[in-house]
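Worked example

This section walks through a single chain of length 156. The input is the sequence exactly as stored; nothing has been trimmed or padded.
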Amino acid sequence: MRHGHALSEREAGVLLDSERPLSALGEREALETAMHLSASGFVPDLIISSPFLRAGRTAEIAAGVFPGAARQTSPVISDGPLQALLELVLRSFPDGPRALLVGHQPLIGAAAGCLLGEDSFGLSPAGFVRLNLVGKPGSGTLVEFYTPPLPKVKSR
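Given that input, the structure is written out below as tokens.
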């Protein structure tokens, strides 16, 4: 899952990309996406997020929907390289525990593509690629590619 919509460094008044918070829209997106996952029957055993503020907050919101999931952070979800992220996934979940990884584009979309043996996925904020892994990269199966609905615009 990609983190929800975040404020820019300037909008947030921060100096570092890692300190960018979710916007109000991003908070809603993260909750709606976690609720969508729950409604589809997905319940993670583990939620691993990038240590960046916006990904951590997205994971925290998801953990509210999935209170039984353990929480971890890993810098490979934000910093890569892709091979390290793939190794994290395959090492952490060899027998198929359900996990929710919360990270950033383009790395999270590239990892999903590699695990499925496909091209990289372009994930929108709070979008996700849900897949089943069966061992090695390239042998997974796609369950769902999700993009949150666009916010409703109030008409005049």
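What to look for: The first strand starts at residue 46 and ends at 49.
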